[in-house]
Design brief:
Layout: H1 2-35, H2 50-59, H3 65-73, H4 76-126
Helix pairs in contact: 1-4
């Protein structure tokens, strides 16, 4: 009976440790997303120059044709302002997504660590020689 409890506790410990490592890794990624969203924001090259921004607006299949026509009429300074405004909105969105994902992943990491510690302790109690 003691052996089966020990095996159960070790299996649960291994599974919870695996869950902890995955949750911790994802939480770390989202922490980077919150603190430095430029590092995790993909397609940021679109917002580097006015030319790339305008080319993306034309190539975007979901783009609004009225927006493209409006952008074509703007001066370089106005396009730059629009581009930087959209870029900042995208960074803010990336940061918010990081916050939204960080909370449940942190909870998952904490709970799996608690499950691991409880079952590891149970396994050690059933076999004091380890």
């Amino acid at each position: 009976m003691k052996k089966s409890i020990e095996i159960y506790a070790l299996i649960i410990s291994a599974i919870s440790l695996l869950i902890f490592m995955i949750s911790f890794g994802m939480a770390t990624y989202n922490l980077i997303r919150v603190t430095y969203p430029k590092a995790t924001f993909f397609n940021n090259q679109i917002y580097q120059t006015n030319a790339s921004y305008l080319a993306n607006q034309r190539a975007d299949s979901y783009g609004d044709p009225k927006k493209v026509a409006t952008l074509a009429k703007l001066s370089d300074q106005q396009i730059t302002q629009q581009r930087l405004f959209e870029y900042q909105n995208r960074l803010d969105n990336e940061r918010q997504l990081g916050i939204n994902n960080l909370i449940p992943q942190s909870i998952s990491a904490i709970l799996s660590l608690l499950v691991f510690l409880l079952h590891w302790r149970l396994a050690r109690k059933t076999n004091p020689s380890t």
